[in-house]
Amino acid sequence: MSVKRRDFLMFLGAGAGTILFDAIPKANSSQTFSMPFMETIPSGEAFAANPIANNLSFKPIQGPMPLKTIGMSKEQQITAYKNFNVVDDLVLPEGFTYDVVAAWGDKVGDSRFGYNNDYLSLVETGNNEGYLTVNFEYISAIPWEQSFSKVIGKPLPFAEMNKALKTAGEEGVNVIALEKSDPLRMKLELIAKEAMIDVGIGVISVRRNADGKWVRTNSSADRRVTGLSGLEDGKYLQATGPSAEIFRKTEGMGYIDKLGDRIIGTFNNCAGGTTPWGTVFSAEENFQTLVPDPVMPDGTSFAPSKKKFAKNDEDEFLGLGSVFGLAGNKYGWMVEIDPANPDDYGTKHTWLGRFRHEAVGIRAEAGKPLAFYSGCDRRGGHLYKFVSSGTITDPKDKANSKLLESGMLYAAKFNADGTGTWIPLTASTPVNPDKLSVLAGKMLPLPKRPDGGYFKATKEEEIAEFKTKFKVLGDLYLGNEVEKQGAILIDAHYAANAAGATCTARPEDTEIAPDGSLMIAFTSGSISTSDGSPDLRIFKGNDGKAYEYGWVMRLAENGNAPDAMSFRWRILATGGEPSDGGQGFTNPDNLAIDRSGNVWMVTDISSDKYNKAIPSRTDKEGKPVSQSNLRGLYGNSSIWFIPTSGVNAGQAYLFGFGPVECETTGPFFSRDQQTLFLSVQHPGEVKGIRKDMAIETRKFAMKTTSGEEFIQTRKVPIGSNWPSLKPNQPPKPAVVAIRKVNNQSLI
Description:
Blueprint: H1 5-12, H2 74-81, E1 83-85, E2 96-103, E3 107-108, E4 111-112, E5 117-126, E6 129-136, H3 141-152, H4 158-168, H5 183-197, E7 200-208, E8 214-216, E9 223-226, E10 238-240, H6 243-247, E11 269-274, E12 280-284, E13 310-311, E14 317-318, E15 334-337, E16 347-349, E17 361-363, E18 369-375, E19 383-391, E20 407-414, E21 419-424, E22 444-447, E23 454-457, H7 460-469, H8 481-490, H9 492-499, E24 507-512, E25 518-522, E26 551-557, E27 566-574, E28 588-593, E29 599-603, E30 638-642, E31 653-657, E32 663-669, E33 676-681, E34 695-703, E35 709-717, E36 734-740
Parallel strand pairs: 1-35, 10-16
Antiparallel strand pairs: 2-36, 3-4, 5-6, 6-7, 7-8, 7-9, 11-12, 12-15, 13-14, 15-16, 17-18, 18-19, 19-20, 20-21, 21-27, 22-23, 24-25, 25-26, 26-27, 28-29, 29-30, 30-31, 32-33, 33-36, 34-35
Helix pairs in contact: 4-5
């Protein structure tokens, strides 16, 4: 979608001097949200070049792609961008630096700092001190295997594992079917256990020294919640809400782990959110890689044997949870933890739904219901909102967590005219799935009955037959009233498909702005043959087709009420090349909003696409290179600043680049905004350890901001040695604290 700057400023509020969030009602206002639509125009006419203004708090760095904000002519762009060197480091503007706070393998309580740190939350307990809560998402098999012995200090039988997995092929190994005395079972369990220790949640206490550096203080509250907490130590996670009734079943249609509402561990912990009352929420995202996703009509799980121990084509581990007989229906939730309570190992609030949670936006205002927003990070995933039955008295009262035990979960229905409604996911909601014709991939996964799981509807006749057979969501699930509601929440994604919720473009982060509006990062609008695809009436490129590069959207509830059943939405920023109307970034992921209302954004490109050579924009057969493969043009994972007021409003400025093959994620500001905490996840994910400072020269068919093509020569390190930056040292995921050298505010 391309937008003239004139129209964009109307979107911001009739002028460049108006803060973005002033364009919609303030909290506690009864005014409705109404604003002119953004005008779609031919590509190449988006934001006019606006040289860097003096009021930015930093001088943007130069990335590999020319941007309109640099204010260069096309001749100057070709000269300046003809050559580019990729650096295996966290690259920041002049006057900024970073300190490593913690890295994979560091001691945490009686365990260790996990792998692939993601969401960060600093709950400050006083001046310059607090608890840093960190998510650990998944294992990057190549660098993890290469580095485990050196970093952790003990060997693992990787050779035997890889031989067994190669022999098993795509089928994988059903570890729990092997005899307990089988040497292979013991070796695979050992590796799976260490991998599951490296995922989950960590709490570390930190303090800022006089020189501005944040350091660990190793308090008694420091602890790990791993993928196996409770298995051997009795430190189970808890559950609230209707789905806990399903967990308590002693018999059912599917697999039951016999633990009742006790839950072993948490994993695939991606983004999250922090409450005003000082607890942290951790989102279980791609749980389907480690345990079965599908469930039976009564909400019970498919057997662990349905997700065997294996590796996929991207060298990611699969079925780690199945090695220990974990029940799949207990994963895919939001986990609440109080970092200050050393005895708290997490609670899964099932009213928030089970799906591939990426983040959570928390809206807590006195005298109003509590509202939680979260997206399902899959192609065709939905945007959800939970609204509590009770109301908030004091937003800082820890008793507010009890409000999550009663309410309703809704899924968003977007309309092409910029409006939308919320659909309740409850038994009486009509079955009304969208037609396949509106979806980019012409496929919709729906609950399969009576068998359980789901089927892929690829014909309109299948949709019509489904609607004839099932009238309301309750017809798709079994049990009493509470059990049906619990089963619907467990099967939230497929229930939302059946109810007609809008299939979106991988909603990742959801952040509440100061005025109560919601910012959403939609990472990618492309198609998946396994998961689904977005609604082309809402998420499309200039050609009306699927669009890879993503968007940032703003959503405002009608009447600015958390419990409103309708809303309005607008696109704030569009990814893609500037010559095609984009802002020079691709695949927006996590967001942070500073106290001035500006948006800070990090991107997440598929690791195999980082700096992938693009010597020509056509392949050997003369066909255009796909949007997915063109992502090599964008270089490393990046950090962007989008002002929402002043002459630069709505433009994206490049603040930073991450190390090789990493994802920069989890941005979180300290209360005084002097520090931006950031996770550097999976450096060297594809090539592993950079050996002898290896480097490769690659060619890229770049474009100026006005569309003239030129060839860029780019030098790319092969693998990573970050954060040590020493030759042949292992790459390690780590948390950093970004600050100005003079320790002044970043804003």
